[in-house]
Amino acid sequence: MSEASIIQPYGLASSLQPSGVAGCSHVPMEKVAFEGWLESISATFVTLNDQERNQSLDHLISLSGAAQLRHLSNGLETLLKRDFLRLLPLELAFYLLHWLDPQTLLTCCLVCKQWNKVINSCPEVWQSVCRELGWRIDEAIQDAPHWKGVYLKAKLRMTQLKEQEAFETSSLIGHSARVYALYYKDGLLCTGSDDLSAKLWDVRTGQCIYGIQTHTCATVKFDEQKLVTGSFDNTVACWEWSSGSKIQQFRGHTGAVFSVDYNDELDVLVSGSADFMVKIWALSAGACLNTLTGHTEWVTKVLLQKSEVESMMHSPGDYILLSADKYEIKVWPLGREINCKCLKTLSVSADRSISLQPRLQFDGRYIVCSSDLGVYQWDFASFEILRGRKTVPKKPF
């Protein structure tokens, strides 16, 4: 067999033709001769360009029978479809999965059942993507499908918010003047209006459950039995839902009362006012127990909450009062002793260049407040800012 006949892409020697092809006889080659021929054709094959190699392979495939094609298919699957997730130890597979973004992880779940099983058996991967969304992770829950579900629901919600499909708009008709005060809890919404009334609504049905005559409401908070209102007339009042009667009135502020909170266990009510003061009241008696000073702007938010963490200044279970104005958040200890001193003053800019908004939340572990530039989060144990999510200003048209 000459070398010229070997390198012809479409003219391979007739001895390459498989057995069973009409018009050719199969004469087995000696092992040594076959190995020499195979080495020679391999050496020639590697000198060809890609197009010539492809033509040569096409010709060999056309000469192959079922046995050769099956052998070729099995060999290609091993070379081209090597499943690293199946072959690697789980620890290494989980390590590699940590480097993938969430959308790629979801795509990988669709590759095959084995990939879906591996990815859905690694809680750390889904906890990590939830953490990137700002989710607080409960390490006690080591269930990967749970955290995957949390992520998918959060992403769906974010998409709906972005596309303005997250909410259905409905109107609650009943007030005859401006509605300034709102408070939502467990499917119920309380509204306070300049028409000297407050109403309690079932959000699901849109029905008004209670409607009582009050004063002009700047802020409201309620439970099943009572409603507490802060007013532009500088007073705080407590009302009974069932009868609509005023249970107690709290007088002492010299400016509008913008925020109230209360705790039945302590029998304490707190209020923040435009007079820069925070007042602590006996909820049942209506007497002023203490006046907290130090704010230099209107106090627009007050919150009462139990601490869930320990620090040099407080212990778990201690009641904490937060009060916020335009630039600062003050932290006060509030226990059985009502006289208290400010533990800490939090701010986001020493030069007061960033204004805080009266959107303050506290769960006993973290303090979160919005500003004119974004949202800030403090760790309550250390009072350190954990993160600040700044909003991107929209470009003018």
Automatic annotation (TrEMBL):
Residues 82-129 form the F-box domain. It holds the Pfam family F-box-like. Keywords: Repeat, WD repeat. InterPro entries: F-box-like_dom_sf (IPR036047), F-box_dom (IPR001810), FBXW2 (IPR042627), WD40/YVTN_repeat-like_dom_sf (IPR015943), WD40_PAC1 (IPR020472), WD40_repeat_CS (IPR019775), WD40_repeat_dom_sf (IPR036322), WD40_rpt (IPR001680). SUPFAM superfamilies: F-box domain, WD40 repeat-like. The keyword Magnesium does not apply. The keyword Repeat applies. WD repeats lie at residues 172-211, 250-291. PANTHER family: F-BOX/WD REPEAT-CONTAINING PROTEIN 2, F-BOX_WD REPEAT-CONTAINING PROTEIN 2. This is F-box domain-containing protein.
